[in-house]
Amino acid sequence: MSTKAEHAAELHQRGCNCAQAVACTFCKEFGISEDDMFRIAEGFGLGMGVMEMCGALSGMAMIIGLDNSQGGTEEGSRTKGDTYKKIRSKVEKFKEKNGSCICRELKGVETGKVLCSCPQCIADAVALTEEYLAEQGK
Fold first, then answer.
1. Domains of the chain by residue range
2. Whole-number pLDDT of residue 79
3. Could you tell me which InterPro entries the record lists for this protein (predicted)?
């Protein structure tokens, strides 16, 4: 397990939701304080976000968006489609490994069969985020 995955696991143990644990782990690379990212990611802990995916993947998606997005609230984004494509690629890798990307399915809420624990989801999302950043030369 990478140092970043260990840090994310520690944040989760301290009470961060899955999205916060992943997103806060990559704050230094983007010059954002962990407290600011904590607030940004707070609403993603219930499996909300892109494709109703688990919170850990929402954290990954936030970092990919933060890295790839060009634009702002005034002019919109010229890169939204490309950002979504990059996120989908990583989500598909996660699904191949774990059988789903939806929190309630991963936790076995309806089936009683846990596909992937929260700590493992977090570690996998951190690994995919690191993979993405390495592909971008970061």
1. 1-134
2. 85
3. CGCAxxGCC_motif (IPR010181)
